[in-house]
């Protein structure tokens, strides 16, 4: 699939893990070079859990993560996924900013022991 971005062409390649139905690992490519990735888990009720989203360090802080995430959300919505779940650490303000920009809200907050 190719996700259109403003002034960018990002392509994601994916593979669904054998033996785990509905679980996919996606690699984000820019001009054939891997620049990040994410994972999806599809629930039987039609929801999808988005996790392990990452953009390579050299491209962080340039809006790439925000643009790519917006395109991923558009693709998921167009594919029929209306409820997208994710989790993020409160110690990751950049990720929190991306997710809140696209309308995600904190539904639950938990503290983990070290």
Question: What features would you highlight for this structure?
Answer:
114 residues; disordered N terminus
What does this structure look like?
The protein is an alpha+beta fold and 114 residues long. 22% of the residues lie in helices and 36% in strands. Strands 1-2-3-4-5-6 form a six-stranded mixed sheet. The termini are far apart.
Question: Topology, pairings included?
Answer:
Layout: E1 2-5, E2 8-16, E3 23-30, E4 33-42, E5 48-55, H1 64-79, E6 84-85, H2 93-101
Parallel strand pairs: 5-6
Antiparallel strand pairs: 1-2, 2-3, 3-4, 4-5
Average predicted confidence as pLDDT: 78
What's the gyration radius in Å? Answer: 14 Å
Q: What's the total count of β strands?
A: 6
Distance between the termini: 39 Å
Structural class of the helices, strands and pairings? alpha+beta
User: Strand portion, in percent?
Assistant: 35-45%
Shape designation: globular
Q: How would you sum up the major sheet?
A: 6 strands, mixed
Question: What oligomeric state is this?
Answer: single chain
What topology, given as strand order, has the largest sheet?
1-2-3-4-5-6
Element-by-element helix/strand order: EEEEEHEH
Helix content bin? 10-25%
Describe the structure concisely for a colleague.
The protein is α+β, with helices and mostly antiparallel strands. The protein has 2 helices and 6 strands; from the N terminus they run E-E-E-E-E-H-E-H.
